[in-house]
Amino acid sequence: MANITKKVSWSSRPDETGATGETTPLLNGSEQPRHSRQMSGEGAIFHIGRHGAGDLEEEMTTEEEFLRGRPKEIPHNEKLLSLKFESLDYDNIENQLFLDEERRMSYMGFRCLEISRWVICALIGFLTGLIACFIDIVVEQVAKVKYNVIKENIETFTEAGGLSISLILWAVLNCSFVIVGAILVAFFEPIAAGSGIPQIKCYLNGVKIPRVVRLKTLVVKVCGVICSVVGGLAVGKEGPMIHSGGVVAAGVSQGRSTSLKRDFKIFEYFRRDTEKRDFVSAGAAAGVSAAFGAPVGGVLFSLEEGASFWNQMLTWRIFFASMISTFTLNFVLSVYHKKPGELSNPGLINFGRFESDSLAYTFYEIPLFIAMGAIGGLLGALFNFLNYWLTIFRIRYVHRPCLQVMEATLVAAVTAAVSFTMIYFSNDCQPLAPDNTEVYQLQLFCADGEYNSMATAFFNTPEKSVTSLFHDQPGTYNPLTLGLFTLTYFFLACWTYGLAVSAGVFIPSLLIGAAWGRLCGILLASIFSSSSTWADPGKYALIGAAAQLGGIVRMTLSLTVILVEATGNVTYGLPIMLVLMTSKIVGDYFQEGLYDIHIKLQSVPFLHWEAPATSHWLTAREVMSSPVTCLNKIEKVGTIVDILSNTSTNHNGFPVVVQVMEGDVPAKLCGLILRSQLIVLLKHKVFVELARSRLTQRKLLLKDFRDAYPRFPPIQSIHVSQDERECMMDLTEFMNPTPYTVPQETSLPRVFKLFRALGLRHLVVVDDENRVVGLVSRKDLARYHLGKHGLEELHLAQT
């Protein structure tokens, strides 16, 4: 392996002298335990690398409890790959139980299952739409009260003097809301921080992120995003809707709530990772649809950002969920606005209608749009670069919940102070429009019948500010106002993303881009004052918004359709697509997208679409983990308990072989069994001796495995007596007899393609006589990536 930049030795492979590989420093500064080789009477057990528990939603382990008492600084290295994350079991386990159930199921049974899938998708769309309505209505009502109180206070003290009291009031109101939101996230559910899009991307990629689809996470997310937006932070409520939709889908599709300890005895067939992940992709699409009124964009988002496995029927069901979501939001908001049946509110963010006549563009403007895309890419790369180092700083120093709440409070206070200062010193006065009643306009030091233009941008919810930048008449803003607003809001948004609050980055990105885009339009109009082409800067605000958002998040296909659907005008499809492509190409030259950066900083073993370009010379033999812990078809219970209880080797998949050989001699493969299956078998005491003496009450069914999903009990909670340890367990009926295998000479890209496309968790490597020589898991593939110095191998850490 001379051509590879070795960041750390792959410590699961002892060298010829028996010494273990080089150890990797952990995130908490301690050293990684050395990988030891342990022998048992029944065969050899080896440490491949500590895997997290097999349960998606496990309770906190003793190791995590120990990490609570963290030092003041946590050393962090982004060249790490965490071993605590597990893969989803997307592959069907075609064991004897599965085949028996399939044989028993009638044609009508299969039809009922298909109907159930459509019903679940409808429920997902309906509930996601209701949550979006709840967030929208609460934010609107609370923000109205807040802004009216501050507005009256400012108007009172503008006459009498003492505007500092208004500043203090504004800061206190903002801080009080943000403190509530930050406490909910930092102390009750940290996974609810941010937009949740990186976590949902990881889940759809096939990674189990602990607690990401819990009911508690949803409650904290919804309450947190309301507090963040009302608290005046530079955030949006659209991003968290995608996470909320995913949580709703994960809950509804299982027909029970493990958090509330309620089982409704419905949808039991779907209690497995294969079905659950499909529904979560529908939930994410419904979230996009509710946020932007973009059902097609929602489907494309799930396709582009998430699911590795896709088929035609899944696409159709996801589109159905998205349509139900946007229709529910539309209908409920029409009733709320006392216009029942008038379906004119397709999403949480309504950009307003862009009329083709007033916003027509010409052929020679396209190069200008592309140039704006390049500017968006550069600004996006700068935003991501600053946020990257800020996140590193937070990981190292701002890791205690109390510090996280204090930082969020500080940002809220600074945001209020900066907003007030910008409005106070701005002398950009504009005449009041007769029909403009939605925005909270401040007169301040302007003459009667005029309002402060800077206040329209700052003294408002971000969604309303975006709409006003798109649609306000030419001359509404002067260039200095837009320039200062862009500069200050850029740094505020960058500082805000990554706080311990539930918040999205979509709307702040659109707002920054709309501001500098409108500024470009005004400057062009002043340069070419004779032409009517440059008359309306609104179209440049739209292009700038697309460029900025594309430069930060680097989405292309789905974002084009989302923006086209949100603006209600397909005329701008081509310019928006060109702008997003340009901003992505320019931005990728300097820095990765924001979501990819945060996934990497969490050390998640994320698998991209393709294997690294220069990895064809690597083979499965060099990538795999070996030797492997194997089990016999009929295995001693004591051996199984010892293997599962071994905390140094927390494996999740075990090849089943004809006979475990002594020493390192590989044995012939005849199946694969999972840790979760073995735990259920031990729990129900499925032993050969008990079956012979007819002490077992009934034969084990797939229902028993589904009832235990997803929180399989830990092995420590299962009592096995000394006599039972001597019993034997027949794994033939429960193992997957046809696991996917590859020859040991298979190249890394071929292994990667098979693993990624089929959503595998384990891939067995065999020799030419079908004997097990190794096992490929997600970490084995994710640790190779293309860096500046060629193919690099990432560190492996336990945290």
From TrEMBL:
Spans traversing the lipid bilayer: 118-139, 167-188, 218-236, 279-302, 314-336, 366-390, 402-425, 480-498, 505-528
Membrane protein topology class: Multi-pass membrane protein
Residue spans of biased composition, Polar residues class: 1-12, 20-31
Main localization category: membrane
CDD domains in UniProt: CBS_pair_voltage-gated_CLC_euk_bac (cd04591), ClC_6_like (cd03685)
PROSITE patterns from the UniProt entry: CBS
Pfam families documented for this protein: CBS, Voltage_CLC
Residue numbers spanned by region Disordered: 1-39
GO (cellular component) term, any one: lysosomal membrane
Annotated localization: Membrane
GO molecular-function term, one example from the UniProt record: chloride channel activity
Keywords attached to this entry: CBS domain, Chloride, Ion transport, Membrane, Repeat, Transmembrane, Transmembrane helix, Transport
Domain named CBS: residues: 735-793
Highest taxon, organism lineage: Eukaryota
Homology family: Belongs to the chloride channel (TC 2.A.49) family.
Name of the protein: Chloride channel protein
Species this chain originates from: Gouania willdenowi (Blunt-snouted clingfish)
Lineage, opening ranks: Eukaryota, Metazoa, Chordata, Craniata, Vertebrata
